[in-house]
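Question (not urgent): is this output format expected?
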Amino acid sequence: MSATRTAVDYEAVIGLEVHVQLATKTKIFCGCPTSFGAPPNTNVCPVCLGLPGALPVLNKPAVEMAVQAALALGCQVRPSSIFARKNYFYPDLPKGYQISQYDKPVAEHGVVEIEVNGVTKRIGVTRVHMEDDAGKSIHEGFKDSPLNTYVDLNRCGTPLIEIVSEPDMRTSDEAYAYLTELKQILEFCGVSTCDMEKGHLRCDANVSVRPRGQEKFGTKAEVKNLNSFRFLKMALDYEIERQIGVIEEGGKVVQETRLYNPNTGETASMRSKEHAHDYRYFPEPDLLPLKISDKWLSEIKAAMPELPAARRTRFIEQYGLRDYDAQVLTSTRELSDYFERAAKASADPKLAANWVMGDLMGELKADGKEITDSPIPAENLGELVTLIAKGELSGKLAKAIFPKMLATGDAASAIMEREGLKQISDTGALGAILDEVIAANPKQVEQYKSGKTTVMGFFVGQVMKASKGQANPALVNQMLKDKLG
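Got this back:
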């Protein structure tokens, strides 16, 4: 009898299906708005309600956003793709079917590069296809009271793309890194806000386990509707452990759809897993095949923004940033845009990076704000850095001016002029301060003259204190050396 195997004897096989709401102003097949937070069942019309005789008309900007996303993921865009009806019945799907794409999606065969624990790995993207969203069911009730379900059809017809990965991930950390990189790419493209709280990014995870070294996949379970990165990782860790436990106890993993309960930290069976034939796919009779010409594709490519990986590389080469700093500063498109404006307005991009990542982001985070809420324009932060780099402003004085910039939004130069905070570089004025400091500290003077040169820092500190941080540090150092001999 073989010895009992442990978790290290197994490996997981993970693939993700990510549903992304496109950032169009109107729905995919009608002119209803996609705005979030409207009163229930107000952003609807005969098309998205599936009323008889209402015909869908494809939204061109939705197609262009889908193609942009596909190109950003390195996919091959099909010159011709076909919409299909995916039939199933649910209270928030009034048509009784979803318009999606089946055997001929808009794009296929892409790749996303991730890094986990210093190791780079390429995750394949099987396909990107377009579809419309269903509505939303809202359940209300408790153990001892009736369960009421309300249906809000505002989301019906919202344009989505579904990004299906290859089963190339082996750990929850890899899945987390893949979803993070995917979200970042889509945000940089501007095709989606990826706001998970508003349902703009949702994820289903297919996971199975197999003995380490075995090529054949195990039986997979699908964990549906994971709406946060943390829940994705927690759900995968639990499900991997659950499946290993089933196998080790002599059971068999069942192919099924499961839901993750963040309150218990467990997944629970929802229904047996559907197969493609259960949906009775057939071509959508009310929509012609989607044709993407070479000319149209070229126009979409020309409008593509710089992607995160390319921007990270450029920041390192152009501004001399460390790899870590470039990673942080390209975490969102808004942050990278802000830094670049600050860097271009400054005399020291690396120092600008430190101020953005440290002082500015620290203050914004403490106030619960994003970089887009910064009261300090990027150009003003760049000016502050320039004043420091040119020796016109000491670091200590800059730290005193920075809160005033946050409070008023004014430029550092304007605050310095208004409050008389200019750096003192006049040798006569500095000489008088130095003489007072030297006279008041004879013991330290003797230490310096006896060879203890580290005491110079003490003198500089005393001068800066006496000048209220306004003395020019470089000039102070030189004058002290001259005076102390």
